Amino acid sequence: MERGRIYVFSSDPEYVWTQTRRKLLQLVADQTSVAIANNELTVELRSKERQDRELEIASEIQLRLLPRQCPVIDGIELAARCQTANRVGGDYYDFIPTNYDQLRQDQEIKPGDAATLVPWSIVIGDVMGKGVPAGLIMTMTRGMLRAEVLNRHSPARILQHLNRVMYADLDNSHRFVTLFYSEYDPQTKILSYSNAAHNPPLLWQTASQTIKKLDTDGMLIGLDPNSQYEDGQTQLAPGDTILYYTDGFTDAVNQKGQRFDEENLIKVFEEGCQRYDSPQGILDYLFEQIKAFIGSGHNNSDDMTLIVIRVKSTQ
To answer: Is the pLDDT of residue 69 over 70?
Structure first.
């Protein structure tokens, strides 16, 4: 590709364009071309370094916004993990106290304290898309939802308000959010919930040794400003276990192009509940199974997030 031209002028009327002079000019042209290319590469490298740094900062901010640890909630044990496909992901999960006044960050919280008896919101969601745009929308969703929770409405009303508030921004960005919102009451052991087209969590009922889905009707957040959502409730018993997950798990593909799908997830979740007594053990087992399915040396192309809740057998 032509990058420029070199012209040679001489005031000597007897100047002769010899082969030696031609080679010398070619040498100068080649060196100039290399210098220009090196300069462009340097500029491009510096630009890439700035972009990498910005992505690193975005990733750090996002990680700080996700819960650093699971809260202490009376009567249940929790475990959670978000594994992003890129440095910035679109998966979201959160634990939100419904009464901040009773929670103090400067004291140790133990089961049985007043703070652990406060109802907690347990949320999982997924922004359609990947990378920085999805991460920005995830951050926006988190802030708006946390503000909405303090109004103490039912789960369905909270999703309805959230959808109305976020609709214009999501419509302009041509993106949507799936969200499963639930509230656990430690005093009654009732889980109230509402679903905005997210993958329904799986409930392992220890008494019957069966799994059922927790689901209600509801559209994606950002699809229709007048979407209506339904409330659901379930009474939890000691030993019951709930798995919240994003579609990065069920859509994971192995080297043969086969999907992990929901059927396999239910199977390994059931195995995990039968083998392990702790949510962390179940969570680790599920991630081990998906890693083995995908195969060594291969990474999933989508974010994967899990929350595992188990009702304690004894207080």
So the answer is: yes
pLDDT tens-digit readout, 167-210? 988 888 778 899 999 999 999 999 999 999 999 999 999 999 99
What confidence tens digit (pLDDT) does each residue in 191-200 have? 999 999 999 9
One domain, residues 45 and 80: no
Q: Name the residue with tokens 């083995």.
A: 292
SS3 176: coil
Please name which of 195, 206, 131 lies closest in space to residue 158, comparing C-alpha atoms. Answer: 195
Residues written for the chain: 315
228 and 94, same domain (yes or no): yes
Domain that holds residue 60: 14-65
Three-state SS at 180: strand
303, 243 Cβ separation under 8 angstroms: no
- 3-state class of 257 per DSSP? coil
**For residues 115 and 109, what is the distance between their CA atoms, to the nearest angstrom?**
7
- Indicate the DSSP class of residue 199: P
Instruction: Dig out the tokens for 270 from the structure.
Output: 């059931």
Residues 112 and 88 in one domain: yes
Split at pLDDT 50, 70, 90, the class of 282 is very high
Is residue 126 a contact partner of residue 303, using CB atoms and an 8 Å limit?
yes
The mean pLDDT value of the chain amounts to 84
- Which of 192, 184, 216, 206 lies closest to 119, judged by CA? 184
Rounded to whole angstroms, the Cα distance separating 96 from 312 reads: 20
| End-to-end C-alpha distance for the chain, whole angstroms | 76
**170/172 Cα distance (integer angstroms):** 5
Q: What is the count of structural domains for the chain?
A: 2
CA distances to 7, 69, 114, 200 from 182, rounded to whole Å, are 75, 18, 21, 11
Q: Nearest 5°: phi and psi at 132?
A: -60, -45
Token readout for 151 is: 């109004």
